[in-house]
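A student in our group prepared the protein record below, which I am reviewing. Here is the record exactly as it was handed to me.
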Amino acid sequence: MRSVQALAVAVLSVLTISDVSRAAEPKSGGIFRIYHRDSPGSASIHEGATYSVNIPFMPIFNNLVIFDQHIAQNSASTIRPELAESWAWSGDNKTLTFKLRKDVKWHDGKPFTAADVKCTFDMLMGKSQQKFRQNPRKSWYDQVEEVTTNGDYEASFKLKRPQPALLSLLASGYSPVYPCHVSPAEMRTKPIGTGPFKFVEFKANESIKLTKNPDYFKKGLPYLDGIEFTIIPNRSTAILGFVSGKFDMTFPTEVSIPLLKDVKSQDPTAVCVVEPNNVSTNIIINSTAPPFNNLDIRRALALALDRKAFIQIMFEGQGDIGGTMEPAPDGLWAMPKDMLESIPGYGPDVEKNREEARKLMQKAGYGPDKHLQIKVSTRNIAVYRDPAIILIDQIKSIYIDAELDVVDTAQWFPKIARKDYSLGLNLTGNAVDEPDQSFYENYACGSERNYTNYCNKDIEKLFDQQSEETNLDKRKKLVWEIDKKLQEDVARPIIFHARTGTCWKPYVKNVTIMSNSSYNGYRYEDVWLDK
């Protein structure tokens, strides 16, 4: 992992993972205590669109394959087998076959087989009688014709066309295998998996508790006896709990830069890292309803943004400006800087951009004597509310008067999926640093997570073109072209990409924080407490 710039050398020492020594002999036992930023809508990862679900419930599950959990930057070269023993592509690159482990049991004692793989992905593709209530990643599998089985321990994904990225999508922390014999409704409240920890209880707005799976197929793991998440929506209160010793670790990638300084000043022994987390803060616009069905108003919004001011206010300068894909060097698909700055609104002269925005607003019928009155909807947690307040302040400069409309987590994603909003401040977490995931999930016509109703069939053709491309350099150039067009079309204006902190006590061993995906599937299976 790359070194992280110190925030304030005199006050704060931020460590990289390589600086944190790992003792040779792990110890078994202990309950790992973490606070949770809010109450998830359910326990079902496949129905969730936030890592508020992913973080506490991924320890219950396994994937077919997963990114190496101790290499900070996810890439195709870091994919490792998990429920699968091995995998192989056919000669035409249209069939991906997995040989499965034979020693895996579900937490209720039933054997894991290829039928569970088929059931899981049939549900995700909408091909089974049982349906997910929400299915935000259905678009990931649009190119899968069918999933077939050959006996109990072989499963194949047969594709309509080559899609090299499929393996990376299957390695994300949002791709667990579900049991065939448990209904989607049961998975929302009492999930059953094959993972290192078993579900105990989920009390909404209070806590989530997991216990060690003594029959885990990875022998000797997990080291911990259990994990307890205490739900504390107020970040300052949660941080005080960590400093006082109530918690062993903060909610991953949730500590702001100012709060991280507070942690280090009050508990100098705390181990803290700051990493990009592949989460963009962006504006979602209901582009099919007035007033934002007017392209001039959408373009004015994008031109009004002072991105550096957001980053300075929220992160003391530690954030990144980019397009849809995560900025370099952590992001592997980022547009070159000169290409990014050629996009309207990304140039350094903010006042010049805003003057152009005011002209567009006047063309649309607004001006000094007639302001546009709107609501800015956002989720009721700090990482959403804080930038929404800054946004409201910035768009005053272009004759827009906005009121903040906060929405509880359980209602937020269903609300915006219904397009029941006008303008929103949203955070888009990408489950893997992979263009297929980002483009199809967030911008394809008809995708459940395309919250803006953006639909451009010409760009979708480019989505397919880059998805099939096996030459990495050619694919990158196509990805840059697509990303540039998405920004020029004001599809979902990207304000900034966050860098955020995670802290843990020095007795917590073997933690890795990923640098290009918070949704990496981390399940604490080899974390241990040296108390």
Summary: The chain is about 30% helix and 20% strand. The mean pLDDT is 92.
